[in-house]
Amino acid sequence: MKNTKSLYPYWITTPEDLAAIEAGLVRGQVHHLCKSAGGRDIPYVTYGEKPDYNRKANYSSACGAKDPAHYADRAGKRTTIMLIGATHGQETEGVCGIANLLSLLETGKDLRGEAVPMITEAFDALDPRLVIVPIYNMDGRCRCEPDSMIGEPHDDGGLRYWGQGTWKDGSLCGWPECKAVHPIKDAAGFLGSYYNDDGINLMHDNFFAPMAEETRALMKLIDEEAPECVIGLHGGSNSTNVLLQPDYVPQYTKEAVHTLSESIAALESNFGYKSAVLNVSDKNPGFPPPSFNLTTAIHHICGAVTSTYESNEGLDHPNRFEPEEILVRHYCLFAALFSRGWEMN
To answer: Are the C-beta atoms of residues 316 and 153 closer than 8 Å to each other?
Structure first.
């Protein structure tokens, strides 16, 4: 088992290391989201004052009244952006990105000791309300012993083991079969890091009657904050970093995700990186339908532009990215967000 932080000191992903960063925040404020299924504290961080949106209705009712401003009157108000890290505990790339982002916002330098003006200048110009949940699935993150999947194998003892876990007979669960039993706790041998301690995959909770307290608390926070853009930071094996198109959302939100993808690609090109930009499509993929997952649920709570950002995990596998490239690609995402790269022209 490799320790990425020992080779790359900026690779901060453990709850203990994040807690140390959070304890030293001056510009940012630390809050308590809830207790995890395993009784662990889940903190979140905010920057900027919360706007008064003159709330009159929930989002669904406001849309029924033909004007979302009844839910959140955004005219002349500061932009609210939200980041959610580690919905799956072994997907630590976004946690590393968040740790370095916090350092940048607090000190002007990241954990490498380097300035990243494309982020700090865009952030200061926008002056947003920024809401960050660094580690959403605290149980899963604590269960995952490696601080990253960098250099780990894809299968035995690596991504599949730490991520999806094993069945009772010791065989690897794998993806997507790991979602066939939910909650998975009673069917698992080793409970992988996808899940909280109750065996619930927070990406696939029942959002109309949540099973997990983490889900209830996050939905409440999202409703109260009414963010305009929410990005969940995930790991996607050794895929090229990409924003996934959400399902069951209006066409204009898909177009906004595409716009953000193009903004990220333009920034990545400055570093010589080749980007992945998914096209907008309204085609019904047929049966079975796509899942109504956390990304989709967030939109229907607050109307935000929402997407899942899948990062390369640096596995010992084809298309492996090095740690610094993984970090810098997250920087391009953050800079595009603060530049309002997700807004429609």
So the answer is: yes
Write down the pLDDT at residue 345: 54
DSSP 129: E
Distance CA(81)–CA(273), nearest Å, equals 25
166 beta partners:
172
| Sequential DSSP letters for 28-85 | SEEEEEEE-TTS-EEEEEEESPPP-----S-HHHHHHTT-GGGT---TTPPPEEEEEE
The partner residues of 191 in beta bridges, in order of sequence, read: 165
pLDDT class of 338 with cuts at 50, 70, 90: very high
Q: For position 168, what pLDDT does the model report?
A: 96
Tell me how far apart the alpha carbons of residues 111 and 304 are, in angstroms, rounded to a whole number: 30
Q: Which of the 8 DSSP states describes residue 167?
A: E
For residue 30, the number of C-alpha atoms closer than 13 Å in the C-beta half-sphere is 15
The mean per-residue pLDDT over the stretch 30-59 comes to 98
- At 210-259, the pLDDT tens digits run 999 999 999 999 999 999 999 999 999 999 999 999 999 999 999 999 99
Distance of alpha carbon 54 from alpha carbon 41, whole angstroms: 31
Burial of 180 (0-12, 13-18, 19+ CB in 10 A): exposed
* Structure letter (DSSP) for residue 321: P
Q: Which domains does the chain have, with CATH numbers?
A: 4-143+207-338 (3.40.630.10)
Per-residue pLDDT reduced to its tens digit, 190-201: 999 999 999 999
Q: Where are the beta strands (DSSP E) in the chain?
A: 29-35, 41-47, 80-85, 129-133, 165-167, 188-191, 229-235, 242-244, 305-311
| Separation CA 115–CA 338 (nearest Å) | 16
Model pTM score: 0.97
DSSP for residue 169? T
Q: Decide if pLDDT at 316 tops 70.
A: yes
Count of Cβ atoms closer than 10 Å to residue 134 Cβ? 29
**169 vs 136: CA distance, rounded Å:** 29
What is the C-alpha to C-alpha distance for residues 301 and 160, in angstroms, rounded to an integer? 32
Q: Average pLDDT for residues 300-317, to the nearest whole number?
A: 97
